[in-house]
Amino acid sequence: MKKYHYFIKLKQFFQNEDGAYAVIMGILSFFLIGLVALTVDGSGMLLDKARFSQGIEQAGLALMAENNDFRTTNQKHADVLRQTVTKEELEGFSDTFSAQKYKRNQELVSGLVRHYYYPSTYFKDNLKISDKYDYQCNNLQGPNGEQLKSIACEISGKFERPSWLYLGKNNGLSFAETTTINANKIYIQKNLDEIIPIDLMLVADLSGSMNSSVSGTKYGTAKIDILREVVSAIAKELLEQNNTEEGKVISQYNRIGFTSFAFGAQQQNNTAQCYLPYEIKPSISVRNSYYGGYYYTTIQYSELLSYVGSNQQRYSYATLAQYFDAFVDYDKTIESINSFDGKDLSSLMYFSKNSWCLGSANNRINSTYIWAGKNESADLVSRFNRVPALGATLSSSGLLIGANLLMNTNPDENAQPSKLGANTQRIIFVLSDGEDQINNASSSLNITSTLINQGMCEKIKSKLNSLQDKTYLEQPTRIGFVAFGYGPSGTQKAAWEKCVGKYYYVANNKEELLESFRKIIGLVEEVGHSTYKEPTYYSN
What is the spatial distance between Cα 113 and Cα 116, in angstroms, rounded to a whole number? Predict the structure, then answer.
């Protein structure tokens, strides 16, 4: 009877549908919790690996900057001497000081790396961190097998990451209680044999508006005078060996040149002419409207050239701006950059210096100059100060001519990468105080923005980068732009930002302009740089 009673109860249980989903969810909940555990810890491990790798890279830079293993002065500084070394920690070291240096380096590395992943990874009550870091530093080997002063460090590490949702051993529904997170080996290099030499090409707007103050009036210091003061300061910093700040080292092979532009720019060897470094179409067809319809007029290249800068023109200033944009063959102009060789460009549209371009009285003054070198800042400043500001504005004319001149490599045998163990950093610094425009025209010229948007800056960088010796760390060409005394907007602003990236600045006084120069040039001491290419270490 009792067995029958149990049978009845069991039958009722299977027939009763109340709570059916609760039973199913109860069975599935364990697997759902496991899925959550795998998802949470899986994404957490990926984030921790990224944080850990970033920390390793920053720790390597700090290790290189403090340079306890190779520094030549103040080796026994306070951070090393305060390290307490046990007998066990002395094993493997020749003396206490070597062990102190190693312990300080480990403290430096672990402190920085932990900042990136702790306490994000560990719970607040978990004070035990299990991590390990390996590093080694050594001198680099030169191209002929010689020992260089330059050093490189390689650094790697790992740590045990505790799972946030651990569901127990051998259930397969969560990661292990702790998981090892490894960082890929990162290399840090510091050049001590020779500070990277700099070739700086200043492409400066010397249009008539530079004679006004930053506020746009005749009162106050003229922009051209501020620029001259800043150029003088930068020239001394880059070229004068005995005029640098304490602790800052400059290369004795630094060079500075300048290309002044207005509506065009002078090439190196003809002081009387302004050049427009564009591929020009032989003629264009212009649509003209009249009452009831329209007709087309053909304008020849020679006709355009005849009234550039002339007071007697067949066309209005505004119309000329529109026509001149149409005359430029943009694709061929950008393609012509491939032929840059540092010599004066041939077959360019040119005209005598006039009120549109640097002034007719300037035909004996060299408004383009290369190169001033070691201890020649006074000569550079004297030459730059002689160039008057007069004319319209067409910034790409200066950029193209300046980029071509930057192809002139330093002829000094001792300045070659094979001697220095380093490439030259080439920098184009473009300064303009207004948008590209013809005098008195109501509309802007779009030549520069069109060229930039079609790839002019990338082509210039690629051409100049072809001068890099790939045996050594490459120094990619840098183009910077400073809008001086005006607030750029519209297509021209967007174009310059595309061209120079982070090296885009606006300056409204001497201090801001000087700071812009320093940021674009990078007048800072080399403290080390990361690289994923394994360096060649010196071996006895």
Answer: 5
Q: Give the Cα separation of 156 and 188 in Å (integer).
A: 11
Q: Which two tokens stand for residue 345?
A: 């460009």
pLDDT in tens, 6-63: 667 656 656 666 555 566 666 666 667 666 656 767 787 888 888 888 889 898 888 8
| Single-letter amino acid code for the residue at 102 | Y
Q: Could you give the CA distance from residue 51 to residue 49 in angstroms, rounded to a whole number? A: 5
- For residues 147 and 141, what is the distance between their CA atoms, to the nearest angstrom? 5
Distance, CA of 80 to CA of 67 (rounded, Å)? 11
Q: Strand runs (DSSP E) across 334-448, as ranges?
A: 349-352, 368-372, 425-432
Cα torsion 205, 206, 209, 210 to 10°: value is 90
How far from 379 is each of 26, 356, 369, 370, 408, CA to CA, in Å? 87, 27, 11, 11, 19
Identify whether the C-beta of residue 537 lies closer than 8 Å to the C-beta of residue 200.
Answer: no
The per-residue pLDDT for range 359-373, each reduced to its tens digit, is 877 788 999 999 999
Distance of CA 469 to the CA centre of its chain: 19
Question: What percent of the chain clears pLDDT 90, i.e. is strictly above it?
Answer: 42
Question: Which helix H or strand E contains 60, and what residues bound it?
Answer: helix 20-66
Q: Per DSSP, what are the bridge partners of residue 350? A: 275
Smallest Cα–Cα separation from 261: which of 379, 409, 443, 434?
434
Nearest CA to 275 out of 362, 387, 353, 355 is that of: 353
* Residue 252 DSSP class: T
Please, what sign has the CA dihedral across residues 291, 294, 299, 305? positive
85, 87, 95, 98, 137 from 91: Cα distances, Å: 10, 7, 9, 11, 20
Could you give the residue ranges of the DSSP H alpha helices within 67-95? 78-81, 87-90
Query: How far is CA 271 from each of CA 180, 239, 386, 424, rounded to the nearest angstrom?
Result: 69, 25, 13, 29
Q: Angle formed by the axes of helices 490-500 and 456-465, to 10°?
A: 20
Pairwise CA distance, residues 428 & 202, whole Å = 6
Phi, psi angle pair for 62, to nearest 5°: -65, -40
